[in-house]
Amino acid sequence: MNGKCFVDTNILVYAHDQTAGLKHQRAQLLTQNLWNSMDGVLSTQVLQELYVSLRRRLRSPLPTSEVERILLDYFEWEVMVNDRASLVRAIELETRYQISFWDGLMLQAAERSGAGTVYTEDLNHGQRYAGVKVVNPFVQ
User: Fold this and answer.
1) Hey, where are the domains in the chain?
2) C-alpha R_g of the chain
3) Order of all β-strands in the sheet with 78-80
């Protein structure tokens, strides 16, 4: 992998959801590669959503202690903290690209970090948003 890569919540959820089949395998491989290269970037938003998803949205939710350990591990990645300017930029991206505010918040964090790639399945694979390319790791 070359350069920083921002990872959206859904990819991380699949990486930890052993019932997700092929998506689990691909997400796990992607996150392992990002661990090895130290190119992974997240945001406070992603970590918050990850906690809720792993605790409440899986068919078999993970115990709090396990999710806490997972979050502590991801604190080793670069974590973008959302602030006032983040919210303003997210609104600009939402308006410009007609995307959700939450996707705008994710994109501004990727943009601010200098990441060239965002891994997500929520936006259009291959499209560039504010200089950041979207890659859906589940598209063949």
Assistant:
1) 5-135
2) 14
3) 78-80, 40-43, 5-7, 117-119, 132-135, 128-129
Q: pTM for this structure?
A: 0.94
CATH of domain 5-135: 3.40.50.1010
* C-beta atoms surrounding 82 within 10 Å: 18
pLDDT by 10s per residue, the chain, length 140: 459 999 999 999 999 999 999 999 999 999 999 999 999 999 999 999 999 999 998 888 999 999 999 999 999 999 999 999 999 999 999 999 999 999 999 999 999 999 999 999 999 999 999 999 999 999 97
Q: How many CA atoms lie within 13 A of 128 on its CB side?
A: 5
- Contact predicate 25/19, CB 8 Å: no
Output the CA angle 137-110-103, nearest 5 degrees.
75
